[in-house]
Design goal:
Helix content: 25-40%
Distance between the termini: 12 Å
Order of helices and strands: EHHEHEHEEH
CATH architecture: 3-Layer(aba) Sandwich
Structural class: alpha/beta
CATH topology: Rossmann fold
Strand content: 15-25%
Number of strands: 5
Shape: globular
CATH superfamily: Dehydroquinase, class II
Number of helices: 5
Amino acid sequence: MKILTLHGINLNMFGKRDPAQYGTVTLDEIDAGLRQLGQELGAEVEAFQSNCEGAMCERIHQAHAEGVDAVLINAGAWTHYSYGIRDALAILACPVVEVHMSNVHAREAFRHVSVFSGIARGQICGFGADSYLLGLRAAVSLACAAQGNKK
């Protein structure tokens, strides 16, 4: 089973960016935790980060061609306005799980809306780096259900 984790704009700055909101964990540490949990769950986890919206769309197109089993995405600010990424995600036949480190619903009003919510199977937010791990568990469970397996 292959799970693709997509990290959007500015998320390469985790550990340096607004520690009060996001903590001090780095993106490399998040990815390492996802790979480790993925092994425990029987899934290969690949991570991709970009600050370029077009590159993110291209990676989603590639995921479609590869037939990944699920996508875990934290698109950062793109979550709230990128219809280009939303439309790319809509091409996928696999489950999409949206994650955020902070509780976006307790922040600025513009963060309360996700343009991905209509196509994502669910959203997990507010648990720091654990949001990613919870999201991975959900993605693996959804992928197993889609394949007719139980995990």
